[in-house]
From TrEMBL, chains A, B:
Pfam family for this entry, one: Peripla_BP_3
Annotated protein name in UniProt: LacI family transcriptional regulator
Domain of life: Bacteria
Keyword Transcription regulation attributed: yes
UniProt-recorded Gene Ontology molecular function terms: DNA-binding transcription factor activity; transcription cis-regulatory region binding
Organism: Lysobacter enzymogenes
CDD domains: HTH_LacI, PBP1_CelR
PROSITE patterns xrefs: HTH_LACI_1, HTH_LACI_2
Alphabetically ordered keywords of this record: DNA-binding, Transcription, Transcription regulation
Length: 337, 337
DNA sequence: TTGAAAGCGCTAACAA
DNA sequence: TTGTTAGCGCTTTCAA
């Protein structure tokens, strides 16, 4: 039984309208409607205009599923965030939002939509069906990466570039970040530096590497106490422990602003002055650090740019074009500490 | 021409396998495969098991578009974030991530996927085709809400509940947040309070309302200087200006932790002690505030819970069930300020 | 408990 | 420049 649609040109909101219906209303075929709505040059400009206006007037809603089925693509990119539901997230701070902003901006303007997902409880079919995947935060363990790779989709990872020659990774220049921190300490005449961070984490390991190399050229070897976590309290704890055993340090480079702030707190509690007795540098240049008292010197990375880059690379992979890992620049923002 | 697939039971990764193929391999019909994979009770348990194992072994990938086309739903919820690409975001702080976490968690376990999007440059068809929409941050202007409403999809908004009787809104109890702040000031014996925030913003207006009412019961009327923005520097600026004109206040309630921190900075720069001379309360209970020196007293809201609730309500609407606006509790976290 | 038929709405390929 | 045909892969009738 055919619907009485075409006989009723003014349709109510919520009515369901297809290209075939529009075709009938316009006195053309469905494929012409399809072409017109996609701005195909194959269709007469006037016809095209007429059809587009008709569609607009009739409140036509394009059916994405039908197109995707036909084209065998989902026009979708899954963004996998390592986001624990607990308070202490793996991805500390607000930066994932900037990353997401950049990604979303770029993918949207390319006509792709962003499927946000974590890896909790196995991925949905719709996620696995994405045309490409962006993995945010490989974390300390790289299970996430292996799991996602199994989906067999084009994939780009945000993280430590050096670790994965086989993967396309976008990351910022962590090694240079470490070097910049070292150079500042050297310029300030500091000779007993500490690195605070967990080098099981690829990005942190790179920061330590750059730090250590730059110091090594001056015959200096930093202390590297272990830290349990990436939180303020973990930073404070680690520094308290450190002060008990090696009270002699005069500079501290933390792998995140959170850790740095914890460290400063512990230092002050133990009567050390910042920056007079101990110079401190953080990482990520978060508002948290920038507004802290004393304002925290930190290594800046541009997450929005990073997001855009990640998006461009998945898109390239999806289109079958080549893409390579890329390292974004970092710079040091000098503040009071 | 039929594909030679069924004659080759071990298939390579990347090969394309349909239910019909599985059916042939299993010696059943496609519909039986469909039922088996959906755990339909209509299919013999043994057959079901056999088919599921076969699918697993063959690396079968379910085609979401086909199902969606057939079912006329997208199994997708669009989350619209008012997220400017600029540094100063509308949604301040890291909280949207928690909200997203809660939303994602709940929708995913219901089999829906999360389409993340901003409103930049008009929405994609796939976004408009979502089965439901969650709007995060109605902002000061409510254009976003009106625009999204035009899509004609079930919609739930995160924001100020009182403003929109016609919409389903989830928000936290901003009015009570304001009341709690007022009560703390009263208990501390403060008599000259200030509210710092822009009441064009619905949520802020509610906070001011609660604050003002509780104070009014004691015959006290707060000062309400205008603030240009939701940033640290805007907070500092506003307080500097305030000190010039009305230097006599002894308590300050800010509509966000960021503003509060800016305020504290300005106070200290002008020789006021916090909390001795001026008691300060922030909003959102961010790590930023909690780790500030002095640690900031703040009103806490649970964003993860809020996200879960938002998700449940769109799901209800999508299923045609009733749903109502809801207000989440807030509480005060007392710290040094 | 299983299957056959039909069709969701769109677009590539080919034809006119 | 426009149209016809066919089919993407799935699931809801309805029938056996």
């Amino acid at each position: 039984m055919s619907r009485p649609r075409a006989s009723n040109p003014t349709r109510k909101a919520g009515e369901h309208l297809t290209m075939a219906d529009l075709a009938e209303l316009a006195g053309v075929s469905a494929i012409t409607v399809s072409r017109a709505l996609r701005d195909s040059p194959l269709v007469n400009p006037e016809t095209r205009q007429r059809i587009k206006e008709l569609a607009e007037r009739q409140g036509y809603q394009f059916n994405v599923s039908a197109r995707n089925l036909r084209l065998r693509r989902s026009m979708t990119v899954a963004v996998v965030v390592e986001m624990k539901p607990t308070v202490e997230r793996q991805m500390s701070g607000p930066y994932p939002l900037d990353l997401l902003g950049g990604i979303s901006q770029e993918l949207t303007s390319a006509g792709y939509s962003v499927l946000l997902t974590s890896l909790q409880g196995g991925a949905l079919p719709s996620v696995q069906a994405a045309d490409g995947v962006i993995l945010l935060g490989q974390g300390a363990h790289e299970d996430a990466m292996h799991q996602v790779r199994r989906w067999g989709r084009p994939m780009v990872v945000w993280g430590a570039v050096s670790r994965h020659e086989s993967q396309i990774v976008v990351g910022s220049d962590n090694q240079r970040g470490g070097k910049l921190a070292a150079e500042r300490f050297l310029a300030l005449g500091r000779r007993r530096p500490v690195f605070l961070g967990d080098d099981a984490h690829g990005e942190f390991a790179e920061r330590l590497l750059g730090f250590r190399q730059a110091l090594g050229a001056h015959g200096i070897e930093p202390l590297t106490p272990s830290v349990a976590n990436f939180t303020v309290s973990a930073g404070a704890q680690a520094v308290h422990a450190l002060l008990d055993q090696h009270p002699q340090f005069d500079a501290l480079f933390a792998a995140s602003d959170l850790l740095a702030i914890g460290a400063i707190r512990a230092l002050i509690e133990r009567g050390r002055r910042v920056p007079e007795d101990v110079s401190v540098i953080g990482y990520d240049d978060t508002p948290l650090g920038a507004t802290y008292l004393p304002p925290l010197t930190s290594i800046h990375q541009n997450f929005v740019d990073a997001g855009v880059l990640l998006a461009r690379k998945v898109l390239a992979l999806i289109e079958g074009e080549p893409a390579a890992s890329e390292i974004l620049p970092t710079h040091l923002v000098a503040r009071v500490t």
